[in-house]
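Example record used in the benchmark description.
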Amino acid sequence: MIKRTIIGIFVLRTIFMGLHLDCCWGQVLYKSDHCCYECYQKNTAGTSSVADGHQGETSRKIAFSVDVNGFSQRLNNTNQIVVFKNVLVNHGSGYNAKSGIFTTPEAGTYAFFFSVQVLKNVRLSTLLMFNGKPVSESLAGRIPDVNTGGNMAVLPLQKGDKVWVQTHHNVLNWINSAGEVILKYSGNSFSGFLLF
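Model output (C-alpha cells):
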C-alpha cells in the first residue's frame, strides 16, 4: 500500500509539473543543473521550460560588473562619461573598458546598477544614460565623510543600444572647490545583466 502511494504521488507530481520520467528521476529541470543539462535540452527543445518559462530560448549569458578600484578617474567636466576600467566580469563582451560604454550584444530586458562614492565634502551627481538620454540619476551628497549614491534601471534594449554612466549636465551641482572630483575606490561601480 505504501509503495503504491509513493509511486502514485510521484506520477501525479510528474504529470502536474510537466516533468519527464526518463530524466533526472523527475526532478525540476533547470538550465544551471549540469547533471541534467543534456536531459533538459533533449526534453525541452522548442517548448517552454517549467523552470524559466521562456519558449525556445537559447542559453544567453550576458552580464558585466566593473569598478574603478586601482584606476582613479578625474571628473572635471559636464556630461563626462565615467570610465570604469577594472573589469570584474564581462560575459558577452558588451562592456568596453576604454570608453565606459555597454553596447547590447542582443535584444532583451536588462537590469543596470550604478554607484559613485565621493570623499568628504564633495558632491557628485551622475546619470545612467540610454542612447544619449538620461534614464536614472544618482546623488552622492556633500557631507563631512565619504558618501555613496546609487540607482538602478530595468530597460528593454535592442541589439546595439548603448548604456553608460556620466556626470550630470549641470556642473554647479557637483563640482568641488578644486573644480574636479576624483573617483578611485570600488564603491564606484557599474553592473548590468540580461534578465530575459
